[in-house]
Amino acid sequence: MTGATVRMTPRSTTSPRLAELLCFAIYGANLAYGRAYKAALAKLGLTYTQYIAILALGENEGQTVSELGDRLFLESSTLTPTLKRLEAMGYVRRRRDTSDERQVLLSLTDAGRGLHARGLGIDPIALSGLTATEFRQLHKRMSALRDTLHESVL
After folding, report:
1. Backbone phi and psi for residue 122, each to the nearest 5 degrees, phi listed first
2. Crossing angle for the helix pair 22-44 and 48-59, nearest 10 degrees?
3. Left (φ > 0), alpha (ψ -120 to 50) or beta: where does 43 sit?
4. 124: CB partners within 8 A, 6+ apart
5. CA nearest to 33, candidates 142, 111, 106
6. By C-alpha distance, which of 128, 109, 105 is closest to 117?
């Protein structure tokens, strides 16, 4: 989001402690999740970005590159090389929209659908150490936080 303006309200004249920053807790959790998924993704030869692209396409094939980018919160400069690699791996098919040549439509190949159906074999709830209810509540709150933060930089 280049050129975005972030609205900040000063709350204190002293700097917060690192351990008190929610953004740092989220950053650390993101790194921990990455490590937890790394072994399963490595067996498939995928990066996390490639994996979530396959998941999103498996849920809604025929998306344009920009629609997928919006859904995954990725810029086209990140997404396009990812999609090219997935296409080279035989998981994704890209084709121009016949009604609008500027648009590229995305779909999974049979191999991509098989990978989507198979998944990683990771139970995200068990991995988190939360109960199913706690997991759903945290997911809902984190999604709301993400949406609020996303809107604040537009």
Report:
1. -105, 130
2. 80
3. alpha
4. 135
5. 142
6. 109
Give the chain's count of helices (H) and strands (E): 7, 3
CA diameter of the chain? 58
Q: For the CA atoms of the chain, what is the radius of gyration? A: 18
- The helix/strand/coil state of 62 is coil
Angle at 140 between CA 51 and CA 19, to 5 degrees: 85
The answer to whether residues 122 and 36 touch, using CB atoms and an 8 Å cutoff, is yes
φ and ψ of 91, to 5 deg: -100, -25
Would you state the structure tokens that stand for residue 128, as one six-digit string? 């988190």
Tens-place pLDDT, residues 64-121: 999 999 999 999 899 999 999 999 999 999 998 778 878 889 999 999 999 999 888 8
pLDDT at 4 over 60: no
